[in-house]
Amino acid sequence: QVQLVESGGGLVQAGGSLRLSCAASGIIFSLNAMGWYRQAPGKQREWVASITSSGVKNYADSVKGRFTISRDNARNTVYLQMNGLNHEDTAVYYCKILAYGSWGQGTQVTVSS
Questions:
Q1: What is the pLDDT of residues 81-104, one digit of tens each?
Q2: From CA 34, how far away is CA 51, in angstroms rounded?
Q3: What is the pLDDT of residues 13-27, one digit of tens each?
Q4: CB 61 within 8 A of CB 11
Q5: Rounded CA gap, 82 and 20, in Å?
Q6: Which residues, including other chains, have CB under 8 Å from residue 79's CB and lie 6 or more apart?
Q7: Confidence class of residue 37 from pLDDT cuts 50, 70 and 90?
Q8: Alpha-carbon separation of residue 107 from 22, 32, 77, 79, 110 (angstroms)
Q9: Is 46 helix (H, G, I), strand (E, B) or coil?
Q10: Distance CA 71, CA 77 (A)
C-alpha cells in the first residue's frame, strides 16, 4: 500500500524559510520520480517541483531560484527547501509519486506579510 506523509509546514513571515519533508512507503522509492504540488485557497492544485530517480530537478517558474527539491533514498524521503517565502506561496503542499495517483494529506504553509 502506497503511503505519503508530508510534514514541516507552518506559519512563517515573508522572507523566511521552511523545509518540507515527505516520507514514502509501499514503493521502491529510489526508482521513482517524486514531485511537490501546492493548492492555494480557491485555486487549482499546481505543480511546484519534481526530481527524477537519477536526481534531475525541475521547477515551476514561480519558485525557481527560491525552492530546492532533494531526495534521500536511504530514508525514502523527498524534501522541499523553501527560501524567500512570500504571501503567494501560502498553500497546502502535497508530495506525489509521479507514477502513482495517490496523494498524501498535505502540509499547510502560511506566509504572513
A1: 999 999 999 999 999 999 988 888
A2: 5
A3: 999 999 999 999 998
A4: no
A5: 8
A6: 19, 20, 21, 22, 69, 70, 71, 72
A7: very high
A8: 10, 21, 15, 12, 10
A9: strand
A10: 6
